[in-house]
TrEMBL record:
Name recorded for this polypeptide: Amino acid transporter transmembrane domain-containing protein
Compartment(s) of residence: Membrane
Record InterPro entries: AA_transpt_TM
Lineage: Eukaryota, Viridiplantae, Streptophyta, Embryophyta, Tracheophyta
Membrane-spanning intervals of the chain: 70-95, 120-141, 168-189, 201-221, 241-261, 282-300, 330-347, 367-387, 393-415, 427-446
């Protein structure tokens, strides 16, 4: 199987169209007795919006309040809006080149522009990014349910608070049960649209988190029990300037959804809807991000942790504080459980295309499908038990694979312009995108490496 087709013959844009497996397992859900497939009538606009929004609003939202602590509220909110516009621009370029090259996947566009090397680079980056993101999901779920420790202080998990510390409330066992009972069944679906209902629920749970956090912050602000957080960063020395750039990989990761755009597009009844779907999803997610960043940082100020959910373990100073704490944490943990299969879908397809480029379609090979799924779930589960912080994972994936997927690759194919369709404005925007991506993430990597070296030296 390959992830991409450079010229998929006969691809139509309508109800029940057949799309090549190179992009995703898009086979209809059932066979009739005569051996023919039932017709799949196409994904709906709301379902596609929910699926794309679920891809976007994942674990990154939990670190956004921490980016406000680094950047200050005003620059932080401006950066969220800026990255939303850049993400929309890069996806628009990706879709435009896909249409001209008749490619049904991100890998197909990369192959059209840079050959097999480009396709393989994309597949590697998607694998690295998605593995990193799903490890973060598991870390957060473990933090929420089993607790976490930061700077020598233990923040109790929900299960610890309810039942006390036992072996069955520990991180390893809780994540094992979550993997077997939740992730494995949801990861077994072969078509993205099968997840539209769980995606809608996951978006609703994210909104619940935002509404409760905003309500608590506003009540405490009106009571005068929390100070107004800093609007701009404090920059006493050169090191603090470098530290500002550590927020960039988190913001990059927060808007990465490019690897699922083609899967969603290919299942639409009317593929001309993909651009308004992208804009609607980005607008919805940006609103959620801004609200979460503002109210999360407002609520906890300089005590905001890298995973803000871990802050919801203490008395918030309002009536029914314990109830609100548990509702916030559990709702978002369930949200991440429902986001997981959307990210896993793209990961499995890209890894299969990387390892078995000439094999038959993954959807038709249950043995290969099962082996790859089990291997990936096992790897992610084990890594989540050994990586201590979501900030560490975000810094690595956001500054490397994610920035390539979201900005560098779409900009590079625009500059190369194999079909001669890019305007001067497109190429200027692409140059700016690449320069900003390389510069800011390079500084972020340098800053993180320096901090790690200084910590170990001390």
């Amino acid at each position: 199987m390959t992830i991409a087709s450079e010229s998929p013959e006969g691809r139509s844009k309508g109800k029940g169209r057949d799309v090549l497996e190179e992009n995703a397992p898009l086979l209809p859900s059932s066979r009739k007795e005569d051996g023919e497939f039932d017709e799949f009538n196409g994904a709906s606009f709301p379902g596609a919006v929910f699926n794309l929004s679920t891809t976007i609003v994942g674990a990154g939202i939990m670190s956004l309040p921490a980016t406000m602590k680094v950047l200050g509220l005003v620059p932080g909110i401006v950066m969220i809006v800026l990255f939303a516009f850049l993400a929309e621009a890069s996806i628009e370029l990706l879709i435009r080149f896909s249409r001209v090259g008749k490619s049904v996947s991100y890998g197909g566009v990369m192959g059209d522009s840079f050959g097999n090397v480009g396709r393989m680079l994309l597949q590697i980056c998607v694998v690295v990014n998605n593995v990193g993101v799903m490890i973060v999901y598991m870390i957060i779920i473990g933090d929420v349910l089993s607790g976490t420790s930061s700077s020598g202080v233990h923040h109790s998990g929900v299960l610890e608070g309810w039942f006390g510390e036992h072996w069955w409330t520990g991180r390893f066992f809780v994540l094992l049960v979550t993997t077997l009972v939740v992730f494995a069944p949801l990861a077994s679906f072969k078509r993205v649209d099968s997840l539209s209902y769980t995606s809608a629920l996951s978006v609703a749970l994210a909104v619940v988190f935002v509404v409760i956090t905003a309500g608590i912050a506003i009540v405490k602000l009106l009571n005068g029990s929390i100070p107004m957080p800093k609007l701009f960063p404090v920059i006493p020395d050169l090191e603090s300037i470098w530290n500002l750039f550590t927020a960039v990989p988190v913001l990059v990761t927060a808007f990465i959804c490019h690897f699922n755009v083609h899967s969603i597009d290919n299942e639409l009844e009317d593929s001309s809807q993909i651009k308004p779907i992208v804009r609607t999803s980005l607008a919805l997610c940006s609103t959620v991000y801004i609200a979460t960043s503002f109210f999360g940082y407002l609520l906890f100020g300089e005590s905001t942790l890298h995973d803000v959910l871990a802050n919801f373990d203490a008395n918030l100073g309002i009536p029914y504080s314990a109830v609100f704490n548990d509702v916030v944490r559990v709702s978002y943990a369930v949200h991440l459980m429902l986001v997981f299969p959307m990210i896993f879908h793209a990961l499995r397809i890209n890894l299969d295309g990387l390892l078995f480029p000439n094999a038959r379609p993954l959807s038709t090979d249950n043995c290969r499908f099962t082996v790859i799924s089990v291997a990936l779930l096992s790897l992610i589960f084990l890594a989540a038990n050994f990586i201590p912080s979501i900030w560490d994972a975000f810094q690595f994936t956001g500054a490397t694979a994610a920035v390539c997927i979201g900005f560098i690759f779409p900009a590079a194919m625009t500059i190369r312009d194999p079909h001669g369709i890019a305007t001067l404005r497109d190429k200027l925007l692409s140059v700016i995108m690449i320069v900003l991506a390389v510069l800011s993430n390079g500084i972020a990597i340098y800053s993180d490496a320096s901090s790690l070296f200084n910590t170990e030296k001390a």
